[in-house]
């Protein structure tokens, strides 16, 4: 019987939320917070280990989530950019003796993309474990994305100010999964307020 690919899910949550003015990881959404919502959605996915990367406000956020069955990684160099958080997580997790066929990278500030989206992405990945599975966000491809094992070395070499989107752009062998207008990044108080008033929010919470 063909084995099911083991996936490492890296959730990026290291930023300082400077545009928001308060840690967006702790913004409330329904009866939970952005960061706990991201973790709970990830925990629904089978055959996946979860690693969350923290940086700014590390102790406060760690204390908020350390009861979950996940690996928490501290990126002390978080200010240098998203690439450093990806490198930090990949370096720590792929050395633990687990053989991963792919790495799923997601952000805590895309609360409308969760389990259902990851499930579709994984189904595409199971069909061909050599292809990058990326999310179509309007006219661009980005995260959430699954990167097969042949790209792990490239993830470890990402420049600090480049995220996974930069790597995705370098390759043509990419399968896209539409975000269906749910790929909303929440970076400002105005965007957060709009989310709470949106039809998407009333559907989910």
From TrEMBL:
Any one GO molecular-function label of the UniProt entry: nucleotidyltransferase activity
Domain MobA-like NTP transferase, first and last residues per copy: 10-173
Domain of life: Bacteria
Keywords: Transferase
Gene3D superfamilies found in the cross-reference section: Spore Coat Polysaccharide Biosynthesis Protein SpsA, Chain A
PANTHER family linked to this entry: MOLYBDENUM COFACTOR CYTIDYLYLTRANSFERASE (PTHR43777:SF1)
Protein name per UniProt: Nucleotidyltransferase family protein
The organism of origin for this protein: Aquimarina algicola
């Amino acid at each position: 019987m063909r084995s099911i690919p083991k996936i490492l899910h890296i959730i990026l949550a290291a930023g300082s939320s400077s545009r928001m003015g308060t840690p967006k990881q702790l913004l409330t959404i329904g009866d939970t917070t952005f960061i706990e919502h991201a973790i709970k959605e990830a925990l629904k996915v089978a055959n996946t280990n979860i690693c969350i990367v923290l940086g700014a406000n590390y102790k406060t956020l760690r204390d908020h989530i350390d009861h979950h069955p996940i690996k928490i990684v501290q990126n002390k160099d978080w200010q240098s950019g998203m690439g450093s958080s990806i490198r930090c997580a990949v370096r720590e997790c792929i050395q633990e003796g687990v053989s991963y066929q792919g790495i799923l990278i997601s952000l805590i500030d895309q609360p409308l993309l969760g389990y259902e989206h990851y499930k579709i992405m994984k189904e595409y990945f199971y069909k061909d474990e050599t292809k990058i599975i990326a999310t179509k966000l309007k006219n661009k491809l980005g995260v959430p994305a699954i990167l097969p094992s042949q790209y792990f070395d490239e993830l470890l070499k990402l420049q600090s100010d480049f995220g996974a989107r930069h790597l995705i752009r370098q390759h043509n062998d990419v399968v896209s999964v539409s975000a269906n207008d749910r790929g909303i990044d929440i970076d400002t108080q105005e965007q957060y307020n709009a989310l709470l008033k949106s039809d998407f929010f009333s559907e989910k919470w």
